[in-house]
Structure formats: C-alpha cells, structure tokens
Design goal:
This protein is α/β, with parallel strands linked by helices. It has one domain: Aldolase class I (TIM Barrel). Helices cover 42% and strands 13% of the residues. An 8-stranded parallel sheet has the order 2-1-8-7-6-5-4-3. Helix 8 runs parallel beside helix 9. The protein is globular and about 60 Å long. About 3% of the residues have low confidence.
C-alpha cells in the first residue's frame, strides 16, 4: 500500500482524523518513567499502546530523540508501532531540507533506517531538494506550507512579484505540490490549525493532497473550524478519505502530558478518545449539512 492508501485505510478502520504526535521531553516525563534514553522508548511505547486503536497516524519528532542520543530508541519505537498498531502509518517529523546529494542521505535515514511511511520536509531549497524522497515508491512527503508559528509570516505570507497573479509564498508551494512536483502522487502539505482561513485557501489550491495539520490541543487550534477548512472544496467522504480531501489533525502535548502521575497512560487514552470524538463529530456534522 502507498502512504495515502495506508492513511485512508487507518482513518476508516479507526473512524479517526487524529494523528498522535510523539515529542518526548524528559523534563516532562510522568512519575515512574526514567529520564534516560531507555525512558524515551518506555514512555512513547506506552502512549502508542494506549492510542493504537484511536490514531489515524503516529508522528514521532526526530529531534526530541536525537538531542538526547535516543535514535536507537526511536528505531525500536517505530518497530513497536508496526506490531502494536499494524496498518497505522508513521510520519517522521524531521523537516529536512537540503541539496540533492544530502537529501538522498536524509531520505535513506527516514525510509531505510527508520522505516517511516512519510516524512516532513522544508521546500525552501526547491524541487531538487524534494526529488530524492519521491524516488521511494509509495512513500509520502509533507511539505511545510503554512505553519502555525508567529514567524511563519516572515516568508510564507509574502507575495511573489515574479509569479503570475503574485501569489503568497505558501500558495505557490501548494500549487507546486498539487501540480508539477507531485511525481509519485504522494506529496502532502503541512498547514497549521491556528489559521483556518488559510487552510481553506490551501485546500482550494490543492484539493487532492493530504494535509497534516498540527496545532489542535495545546496550541489552541479550533477543531471544528479546522475540520471545516480542511474539508472545504474537497470531495471528502465522512472519514476524511475519498478521492481527495484526506487530512490528519495532529495533537502531541495534550495527549502525551495529560497526566504527570502514574495514570499517564489512562489519561493519554482519555484525551485521545475525546479529541477523536470532537474531530469525528465535526466531520460528520459538516458532511451531514
């Protein structure tokens, strides 16, 4: 199965739009979890087990592991995901972006070393920095498009005077990803949940691409507005699938750190279930209208 087929199948199987982000911070580990490299695996594996039947996808952030020398634990964790949540795709959140020869090594890291199904990338250096990832048949790549951080306006909102129609940079990225860059049919876009009007604009420009939408939960993105914007203008089925309109809404900290006590597994599952229910209600309500 290709990445998008996996994403669609997992969404249908779990009736979910929820992507569970895994950003382990040892300073926030709950009671009873060792603040060591081994603790990274123990903590995240427990979260995976608690949400395996709830998640549309898992999104481990590579820097949180690499900064603490826990890359081996990340490899072990992804192997655990395959066993505990078969069929749920893994999106490696790496935000890589470099020249072609270096990009080849980053692609090998993501897809061969870690065995991820998709990876997040920065498109700032252009198509030749994206192309090596597209050579991996069926693997996905999400390009940063309209992010939720305040500094996103510095570049993403600027208009391009030399491009017909003078689109904003994020609009140009969306059009390229929908069109000439999508060589393997597995490109997607990252858009922040804190900007629903611009999610809607991205969806209009890229109606068939999967969207990865962080920012619901601790970052304060509105779930109903996000679902409405992500679905707007797309031929989406009630499960977020269909020919187009596929999207995954990420929540990390709200789930991971739902409790600082020994009940963190139960608390994480409770928040994940509540978030899935909120997103599901929003999606079904929009479809019904």
């Amino acid at each position: 199965m290709t990445f998008t087929e996996m994403l669609r199948a997992a969404g249908r199987a779990h009736d979910s739009l929820l992507c569970v982000g895994l950003d382990p911070e040892p300073g926030r580990f709950p009671e009873g979890v060792a603040r060591t490299a081994a603790g990274f695996y123990d903590f995240c594996a427990a979260i995976v087990d608690a949400t395996a039947d709830v998640a549309l996808a898992f999104k481990p952030q590579v820097a949180y592991f690499a900064a603490h020398g826990a890359e081996a634990q990340l490899e072990k964790l992804i192997a655990h995901m395959r066993a505990a949540a078969p069929g749920v795709p893994v999106i490696l959140d790496a935000k890589r972006g470099d020249i072609g020869s270096t990009a080849e090594q980053y692609a090998k890291e993501a897809f061969e070393r870690y065995g991820a199904d998709a990876v997040t990338l920065s498109p700032f250096m252009g198509f030749d920095s994206i192309e090596p990832y597209l050579k991996y048949e069926g693997k996905g790549a999400f390009l940063l498009c309209r992010t939720s951080n305040p500094g996103g306006d510095d570049l993403q909102a600027q208009r391009l005077a030399d491009v017909p129609g003078q689109p904003r940079l994020f609009e140009h990225v969306a059009a390229l990803a929908q069109g000439p860059w999508n060589l393997n049919g597995q490109l997607g876009l990252v858009v922040g949940a804190t900007r629903p009007q611009e999610i809607e604009r991205v969806r209009a420009l890229a109606p068939t691409l999967p969207l990865l939408i962080p920012g619901v939960g601790a970052q304060g993105g509105d779930a109903v507005a996000t679902v409405r914007a992500a679905r707007m203008g797309a031929d989406a089925a009630a499960d977020g699938g269909g020919a187009g309109g596929l999207f995954a809404i990420n929540s990390s900290r709200a789930i991971l750190y739902a409790s600082a006590g020994r009940d963190f597994v139960q608390a994480a599952r409770r928040v994940a279930l509540d978030t899935r229910a909120t997103l599901r209600a929003a999606m079904h309500g929009i479809v019904a209208t």
